[in-house]
Amino acid sequence: MKKILKSFFVLTIIVSAWYSSGFFASAAPYFNKVFELKQPDNSKVQVVVSGDEYYQEIEGLNGYTLCRDSKGWICYAKLNQDGTQYISDGQAYKGEKDIVQGGISKHIRISNESISKIRQATMKSLHPNSTSSICLAGNTVKASAVTNQNYISSASDSAVSKDLVNGVTILIDFPDQKSDISKDEIDNFFNQTGYTGFNNNGSVKDYFYDVSGGKMIYRNIVVGFYTAKYPKAHYDNPNLDESICGSELGEEALKWLVSTNIDLSAL
Prior knowledge:
Elements: H1 2-10, H2 15-21, E1 30-38, E2 44-51, E3 56-60, E4 66-68, E5 74-79, E6 86-92, H3 112-126, E7 134-137, E8 151-157, E9 160-173, H4 183-191, H5 204-211, E10 216-227, H6 232-235, H7 242-259
Helix pairs in contact: 2-7, 3-7
């Protein structure tokens, strides 16, 4: 089932991670995973991501640390004066064969204390309480997922007691960037038994069923797409605290979800 976790990242963005480091990525720990991302002019670049849902380091294929600038461009990064943040040095990243100027170094890192603070802020943003089960799905790496499972009921199947877990995923588009993966595909990724899309070995439902020894059935209600109020760069502003950006988009999406009159009582 390792493949499903790997593709979970491809089909997933965690909003706050891009806010803290200038990027989006997701879910469980992974190391040197290559993603293809879009620049504001729709050109595509490959980046290398290491981390987990709470913090990621993003580098180019040439080993230089990357971040987004205020206009949304993926740029080469340098450290601010106290080493607590990545800031753009003004050079847009185009790929492995770039000629990098300005004397910046490869594999730079902010301080461990700063990383710890970012991780704690991200945890607080993603898990404000232990009873919510909400996914916010966007389209930067691909789609998105953040889930806090709420074990709400039991069901009997062939005389075997199973935990039935219901979640909801909100798919999010931006006015200036639409998802290139359909709602049906994302629904299958979460809920289809034996899902094989994007080289997965099963769906999210299959994964939780497998790791629980057949004792858990995880089902996801996929709704959307909700179109955010502002362009993507508005929520991906490296000059703002990630909790502010994440909360703004989250509140928008949740208000929209309530307006659809979806029944949330089973979550």
